[in-house]
From TrEMBL:
Protein name (Swiss-Prot/TrEMBL): Uncharacterized protein
GO MF annotation list: cysteine-type endopeptidase activity
Natural source organism: Parathielavia appendiculata
One of the record's GO cellular component terms: cytoplasm
Family per record: Belongs to the peptidase C14B family.
Swiss-Prot/TrEMBL GO biological process terms: proteolysis
Gene3D superfamilies named in the record: 3.40.50.12660
InterPro entries the record matches: Metacaspase
C-alpha cells in the first residue's frame, strides 16, 4: 500500500475501488466517510445522490447551456479558437451521450451495500465546499 505520496504518488479512485469495493460480496456493507479535498469520487462509485436524496444523472441539456455560454464568452473576447474548441467539445459530448455513465454503472456497481459520504465535491477543495454528497454503489 502507498505510504508516502511524494515517492509513490497519490492513491487514485480506481485503486481504492479495486482493492476496497470490488472484493465485497453481496450481503456485505461498507460505509466510508471522506473529509478531504476532491473526495467526492474517492471510491469511484457509479451513483451520485444529492443531499436531498435525489439521484444525480448526467444532464445533456445543462451541458448544452454551459457550452453555449462558454462559446458566446469566447466569441465576445474574439477568441475564435475557443469558440471552435467549445463547440467541438459539446458535439463530442452529445454524440457520446451517456456512454461513460452507462459504462460506469456496468463496471463499478457492487453487489455489496456500499455508501460513501463525502465532505467535498470532486472539483472543490474542502475549505471552500459546503455541498456534501452521498455516493452509492
Amino acid at each position: 500500500m502507498i505510504v508516502d505520496h511524494r515517492i509513490a504518488g497519490h492513491i487514485v479512485d480506481d485503486e481504492i475501488h479495486h482493492y476496497v469495493v470490488k472484493p465485497l460480496q453481496a450481503g456485505a456493507r461498507l460505509t466510508a466517510i471522506f473529509d478531504s479535498c476532491h473526495s467526492a469520487p474517492s471510491l469511484d462509485l457509479p451513483y451520485l445522490y444529492s443531499t436531498k436524496g435525489v439521484l444525480k444523472e448526467p444532464n445533456l441539456a445543462k451541458e448544452a447551456g454551459k457550452g453555449i455560454i462558454q462559446a458566446v464568452g469566447h466569441y465576445a473576447r474574439g477568441n475564435v479558437a475557443g469558440v471552435a474548441t467549445t463547440l467541438f467539445g459539446f458535439a463530442k459530448t452529445v454524440l457520446k451521450g451517456n456512454g461513460a455513465y452507462e459504462h460506469s454503472k456496468r463496471t463499478k456497481t457492487s453487489p455489496a451495500d456500499v455508501v460513501m459520504w463525502s465532505g467535498c465535491k470532486a472539483s472543490r477543495r474542502r475549505e471552500y465546499s459546503s455541498h456534501n454528497v452521498v455516493r452509492l454503489g
